[in-house]
Amino acid sequence: MVASNPLFRGTWTAKKFQATVINDIWPETLFFSLVATMVVLVSKETTHKLGVANGLLTVLGTVLGLVISFRTSSAYERYQDGRKMWTNIMIASRNLAQQIWIHIPSDRAGKGDTTVMQNIIEKKSMINLITAFSVSVKHFLRGERGVYYEDLYPLISFLPKHAEGASPDSEPLPLWHDDDDDEHHRAIDMPVTELGREVSRSSSDGTQQGEMGEKGGDPEKGLGPRGERRLRPARNPPVDTIYDYFPLLRLFKWIARSISKRARAKQTAAEKARNKRRKHQSEVLESHIPVEIVLVLSNYTAYCMRNGLMQPAIATGVTANLTMLQDTVSNLERILNTPLPFAYQAHLRMSLWLYLFFLPFQIYSAFGWLTIPGTAFASFLLLGFLEIGQEIENPFNYDLNDLDLDYFCQAIQREMHLITAHPAPDPRSFIFTNLNQPFAPVDMRTAQELTQGDGEYRFPLDGQAEAGVPSLRRTLLKGWKEVDNMTRT
């Protein structure tokens, strides 16, 4: 399966070129093309011939090709591992929701003083936490700390905010550690920044401003009211700037930032100490929200087991799915926090630059004026593969080539609602009706007709042996033969 082409889907804009690597490699391609132009013009218009022997061209080109191929393959392997881990989350979430909704009884006569309505609300709330788990993993992988997001907070807002028996004025639990953080309240009143880049906010109708609005729908639709608290948007894709299209301008940005840092370095010692203390407190109070949600689900499992609401076999399956969720988060964290070593990337890029720089000198004698387009094509090809490996190395961000985490979370949300829409009726209420033909195509009678009379099964064409189970077995055997013949012809 090949990913759909974003260049020709929806309204066309120049921003869609970010699905390719053209914006990242065109300055380097232009530079090496200019080097090739210089080599050709000097050799053609002067008496100096810049062409050299190309003995190392084949050897170095082969080695660089293999190394770049390994770089791209290792990055794509991380991409595939990330997709597999999200598949595990979807499977475990689906299984866990089914076990809670079907196997934990809603009618608990003799096992407590709760009503059926209260029990259904209890189970639905736990299933909402399963949805919240996948959403929290999405924000965790994108480096978006806290729980105050439009697609996460409505799902977990009912959880306790303080330790048992503590007053509301006491220290909040780790899940709500930034509830009284002034920096958080300021963050929701201004554009959020990520690594110094300004990011967009959700518009009033739920659509996203910027190119990422075309990828995925509205992650917070169907979650109910947000309450009075002002929340961060569910998606914070980076806003496109001129630096994305003209990377060379980042040099001037770096110079300006260096100057501003020197100006800020003149702040008083008291301000430095206060900022250091605030930063240290923020680091200490950081909470692992997916683990916190799994802890609540584990506590609910223990509660059901203590009160005899869950059979041991089902409890084993629930525990296995919770363990699977935790293992998956650990593997996703491993992918996120284990980048390719910088020394390898730097050495590979410098080697490729040197190869492309000396390429025009080696091929001029054979190609002449064709050295210019040949060098441009070689630069575009090799630099493109190298940049692709770097882009998909972290598949959890907002790039058009990254995994669509919002879609995965929405799929889990839909499945959770599908599971809770199942009424879990008595099988006898729908099996023994005139719409069910269990023994077709051999016996076309309905289940209602088969159960009339004395209840003994009699196949109309069966003239041998007594009625009952032997006749039923012969019907099933005849059905197997007919179906096998019909499906093979």
UniProtKB/TrEMBL annotation:
One of its GO terms (cellular component) is plasma membrane. The lineage of its organism: Eukaryota, Fungi, Dikarya, Basidiomycota, Agaricomycotina. Residues 201-210 have a biased composition (Polar residues). InterPro entries: YneE/VCCN1/2-like (IPR044669). GO terms for molecular function: chloride channel activity. It is found in: Cell membrane. This is UPF0187-domain-containing protein. It holds the Pfam family Bestrophin_2. Keywords: Cell membrane, Ion transport, Membrane, Transmembrane, Transmembrane helix, Transport. It comes from the Eukaryota. The keyword Isomerase does not apply. Residues 191-235 are annotated as: Disordered. Signal peptide: none annotated. It is a multi-pass membrane protein. The chain crosses the membrane at residues 25-44, 50-70, 352-372. Residues 212-231 have a biased composition (Basic and acidic residues).
